Amino acid sequence: MKILYLLCLIAGSTAFAQTITFKGCINLFDDQTFIFNKTGVDTNNKSIYVTTPVDGEPCSGLGTCEFKIQWNNTLTRWEFIADEGYGTFTNPKLVYYNSTGNNTVSFPPGNSIGTWVENTAFTTGLCNGNLTAANSTMTGDVQTTTLGTSDLSKNKIQIFPNPVTDFIRISGIDNGLSIQIYNIDGRLVKSEMFDSKIDVSQLIPGGYILKINTRDFQTHQFKFVKK
Length: 227
Description:
The chain has three helices and 17 strands. It is mainly beta and about 230 residues long. Pfam families: Por_Secre_tail.
């Protein structure tokens, strides 16, 4: 059986990269870090992420360590699925699912948003339970706070005006690191170092999500409308 593993990249090494870095369930997937690359969006404007395997480490009984994160509209949940061993995803295995994150967003929740439930029917409990910060890492193009943020964050952080024509201003953050702006399809359209004044004049009219990353590893997300 051909044994495959994944080329490990650093998530966000390119400013406009849309990747998810994952490490977890090492009893089944060995001590590996996996990089999911965004391959497109589905008919519900939800992003689809797939790993790319290369020859290398074993992946327990799967034959290939190839995974996909995608939206299941029928069950209204995000799913983390494993390839059946042939690289086709025609009969994939459900590893985790999350139906409690912010499902209005076009990219999936991280391991701290909602609950990524272990599908023990497939894993037989070898993933050590639901995904948490203690048993996994999940970073990159994922939700790290709920949209709208907590009441505490709302009181501290504001973006204005909204709707906006030319510039968004941010108040209440003194340790900003970077910002990303995503359109409603989940596509990253702007990424730059943090500034309290952001030029959005070149964006086409419509709805967007502003993601603010701070130096203490917090993320705040806001919806806004470009006129």
